[in-house]
Automatic annotation (TrEMBL):
Gene Ontology terms, MF aspect: oxidoreductase activity, acting on NAD(P)H
Keywords: FAD, Flavoprotein, Oxidoreductase
GO cellular component, one term: cytoplasm
The FAD/NAD(P)-binding domain, residue ranges: 15-311
One Pfam family named in its UniProt record: Pyr_redox_2
Required co-factors: FAD
Ranges of residues in domain Reductase C-terminal: 333-415
Full protein name: FAD-dependent oxidoreductase
Entries under SUPFAM superfamilies matching the protein: FAD/NAD(P)-binding domain, FAD/NAD-linked reductases, dimerisation (C-terminal) domain
Species of the source: Jiella avicenniae
PANTHER family: APOPTOSIS-INDUCING FACTOR 1 (PTHR43557), RIESKE DOMAIN-CONTAINING PROTEIN-RELATED (PTHR43557:SF2)
Taxonomic lineage from the root: Bacteria, Pseudomonadati, Pseudomonadota, Alphaproteobacteria, Hyphomicrobiales
Length: 424
């Protein structure tokens, strides 16, 4: 599927987008939707049309779904919208003075604006045996397809990492009746993203699903000769495994920007319009580090929402050329489907020092209001979509909810939001 779809827009330079994921696709689509008439070129490392990643760790690995079901748009979309798509290639160098990029294929492209949507890469654990057959990573469709093929002859699976991806895969594999053990080095699940209350909820539910969870357990090595047969923990215990998935997080792909002299800080540092120190170069999505008003610090967010919203802002900035556009202030939200449980998070709840919970009496449902002092950082919900949507409205409109109100028995978020709107 590698190759090039040529657009037909006139001109010699235009916009070059490095990266064919959600962010790269969205900025190209938004440029055309906004009336941008210059050339638009996406350089995508994978030899495929841009596609959705979230289903890879859920439905895609446990079904025989066709890859085309993941596509963001069919091939005809790029042809009709004069978007040149160079698949199976990547940007390997940036010449900021000449305003050109060098390609892995040996060619080069000139640009008026360059958008770095280069994403992130799986963190590789420096342990013996990590390259054995039967050891998998999961970020791309090709990796998902290899994992899906490997599952056919695997009864026992060890998942290294208790974050979103590891737990989504664990739940999917339990649905396939695989014996699953999740090994997490921290003292709780999803420790970097959710409150302890939500961590405990999912620990209990995954165990009820039949998944064995090992917390505070570090992996020392994957054992085997020609292929993986076990995982050895740092305390010497060995866990038998026919297949191992390493889901130990990601690192931003910021080396390209750093080599071009752009500042990086766990990601490519950008301003409130996603521009780097070079006004012709932007960074968006998983690779971009920016100041968030919802965290009051520099953050890097890995979410579809963030990728889409940043891409739309950059497209508007390129089209209008207006430095007076409002700064990026999209409310961050995330989700994770783990078996029958939909976890939804609005806001950035890391750093909360007080959590009020509700819904504990309802099986499979939970709402956690996360505060830092008296400030509501965000809301984490499980199978409570109404409260999630209300939370997005609260943060977007700067509506206030106090800790003592949430703590009252019978607190009703919907009624509270309605009362605030009447007052306002």
């Amino acid at each position: 599927m590698s190759g090039t779809i040529e657009g037909t827009a006139g001109g010699k330079t235009g916009v070059v987008v490095a990266g064919g994921g959600q962010a790269g696709f969205q900025v190209a689509a938004s440029l055309r939707q906004g009336g941008y008439g210059g050339p638009v070129t996406i350089v995508a490392e994978e030899p495929r049309l841009p596609y959705q990643r979230p289903p890879l760790s859920k439905t895609y690995i446990k079904t025989d779904a066709d890859f085309d079901s993941l596509l963001l748009k069919p091939r005809s979309f790029y042809e009709k919208n004069a978007i040149s798509l160079r698949t199976g290639d990547r940007v390997v160098a940036i010449d900021r003075q000449a305003c050109t990029v060098g390609l892995a294929s040996g060619g080069s492209l000139a640009y008026d604006h360059l958008v770095l949507a280069v994403g992130a890469s799986n963190r590789v654990l420096p342990i013996a045996g990590n390259a054995l057959a039967g050891v998998h990573q999961l970020r791309t469709a090709a990796e998902a397809e290899r994992l899906r093929a490997g599952l056919a002859g695997a009864a026992r699976v060890v998942v290294v990492g208790g974050g979103f991806i590891g737990l989504e895969v664990a739940a999917a594999l339990r649905a396939l009746e695989k014996q699953v053990t999740v090994v997490e080095a921290a003292d709780r699940l999803m420790g970097r993203t959710v409150s302890r209350e939500v961590s405990r909820f999912f620990l209990d539910e995954h165990r009820k699903m039949g998944t064995e969870i090992r917390l505070g357990a570090a992996v020392a090595a994957v054992l085997g000769e020609d292929r993986a047969r076990a995982v050895r923990l740092s305390d010497g215990e060995e866990l038998a495994a026919d297949l191992v998935l390493i889901a130990a997080g990601v690192t931003p792909n910021d080396q390209l920007a750093a080599e071009a002299g752009l500042e990086t800080r766990n990601g490519i540092l950008v301003d409130h319009h996603m521009a780097t120190a070079d006004p012709r170069i932007f960074a968006i999505g998983d690779c971009a580090a920016f100041h968030s008003p919802f965290a009051e610090r520099i953050v890097r967010l890995e979410s579809v929402q963030n990728a889409v919203d940043q891409a739309k802002l950059v497209a508007e900035r390129i089209i209008s050329g207006a430095a007076s556009l409002p700064p990026y202030r999209a409310v961050p939200w995330f989700w994770s489907d783990q078996g029958p449980f939909k976890l939804q998070i609005v806001g950035l709840t890391a750093g909360a020092d007080h959590v009020e919970t509700a819904g504990l009496g309802e099986a499979g449902k939970l709402v956690a209001y996360c505060f830092k002092g008296e400030r509501l950082l965000g809301i984490e919900t499980v199978n409570r979509p109404g409260e999630h949507m209300l939370g997005r409205r609260l943060l977007a409109e700067d509506l206030v909810v106090a800790r003592n109100e949430v703590a009252r028995e019978g607190f009703d978020l919907k009624a509270h939001v309605a009362a605030l709107k009447r007052q306002g």
